[in-house]
């Protein structure tokens, strides 16, 4: 992969070079990552074994939690380990692998959020046809297409990255490998590749965000015809989804829909959507969802009772 490059490894500058702040980075992101793993694992297990969470919404939430876990794992462990390393070295092959995995599960999260919005649209706007439209086979097919779309997007990203020749320097002013910081190091004019990046990642982020906002506006508008109780339940679910959409897409659009320029806040913005959002998603979906909380209590109370006998 690196036959056209004189650079075989990169040095990540990380979030900070101050030793005291690096200790804070270790503690803060270890907590975030541990919380992400525990929260999403709890949701995955609860949906998998609960009989009350068999609807399409929870089927998609199951895959969102998987995407969250893997998306965070693509960057958080290295960031945590590198906080104790004086020289944060990542090989060329590891860098390309990180780009592939980061975009694979990032795109998967986007597509699952779209599927969740589609599910809510059908449930609220076409309730009589909901069981027919969102039957199990259809949900499985939609998830398969989401995986295929994510894989194709990731392949496109890694193809752009492999076009870049590197002849030094090899200092990446970031805590992970991604196309934007790598463009600054390439020994070529990167204008065309940046346009391709914006037309790929940027368009996916922007168009998906616009699609989701329009769909939720239609959903919220249609709620005026529902009963007060139905309106309250639908609003609770949709509000959770809208919060997740804004938290995830806001930073993504900021990073991937602009010319190849860097800003001081770029790294913190990236931290927010790669590490903070996967940590917040389980909290948002459990604290605002009575069905998930009740299913968790029932499932874990049964498990504790069975173990005590």
Automatic annotation (TrEMBL):
Chain ranges of the G-protein coupled receptors family 1 profile domain: 39-285
Record carries keyword Membrane: yes
Entry-linked Pfam families: 7tm_4 (PF13853)
Main localization, broad class: membrane
UniProt keyword list: Cell membrane, G-protein coupled receptor, Membrane, Olfaction, Receptor, Sensory transduction, Transducer, Transmembrane, Transmembrane helix
Membrane topology of this protein: Multi-pass membrane protein
Coiled coil: none
Intracellular or extracellular location(s): Cell membrane; Membrane
One annotated Gene Ontology cellular component of this protein: plasma membrane
Gene3D superfamilies: Rhodopsin 7-helix transmembrane proteins
GO MF term set: G protein-coupled receptor activity; olfactory receptor activity
UniProt xrefs under PROSITE patterns: G_PROTEIN_RECEP_F1_1, G_PROTEIN_RECEP_F1_2
Protein family per UniProt: Belongs to the G-protein coupled receptor 1 family.
Record-given protein name: Olfactory receptor
Regions crossing the membrane: 24-45, 57-80, 100-118, 138-162, 201-223, 235-256, 268-287
InterPro entries the UniProt entry points to: GPCR_Rhodpsn, GPCR_Rhodpsn_7TM, Olfact_rcpt, Olfactory_Receptors
């Amino acid at each position: 992969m690196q036959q056209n490059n004189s650079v075989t490894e990169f040095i990540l500058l990380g979030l900070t070079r101050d030793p005291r702040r690096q200790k804070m980075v270790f503690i803060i992101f270890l907590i975030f990552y541990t919380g992400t793993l525990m929260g999403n694992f709890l949701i995955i297990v609860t949906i998998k074994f609960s009989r009350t969470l068999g609807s399409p919404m929870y089927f998609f939430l199951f895959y969102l939690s998987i995407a969250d876990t893997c998306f965070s794992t693509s960057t958080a462990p290295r960031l945590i380990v590198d906080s104790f390393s004086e020289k944060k070295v990542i090989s060329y092959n590891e860098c390309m692998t990180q780009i592939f995995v980061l975009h694979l599960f990032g795109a998967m999260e986007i597509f699952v959020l779209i599927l969740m919005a589609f599910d809510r649209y059908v449930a609220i706007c076409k309730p009589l046809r909901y069981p027919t439209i969102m039957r199990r086979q259809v949900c499985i097919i939609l998830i398969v297409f989401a995986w295929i779309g994510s894989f194709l997007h990731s392949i496109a990203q890694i193809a752009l990255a492999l076009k870049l020749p590197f002849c030094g320097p090899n200092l990446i002013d970031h805590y992970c490998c991604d196309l934007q910081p790598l463009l600054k190091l390439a020994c070529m004019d990167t204008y065309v590749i940046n346009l391709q990046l914006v037309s790929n990642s940027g368009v996916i982020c922007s168009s998906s965000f616009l699609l989701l906002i329009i769909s939720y506006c239609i959903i919220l508008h249609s709620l005026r015809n529902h009963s007060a109780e139905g309106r309250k339940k639908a609003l609770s679910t949709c509000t959770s989804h809208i919060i997740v959409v804004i938290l995830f897409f806001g930073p993504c659009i900021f990073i991937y829909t602009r010319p190849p320029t860097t800003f001081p806040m770029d790294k913190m913005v990236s931290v927010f959507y790669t590490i903070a959002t996967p940590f917040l998603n389980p909290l948002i979906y459990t604290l605002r969802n009575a069905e998930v909380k009740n299913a968790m209590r029932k499932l874990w109370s049964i498990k504790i009772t069975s173990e005590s006998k």
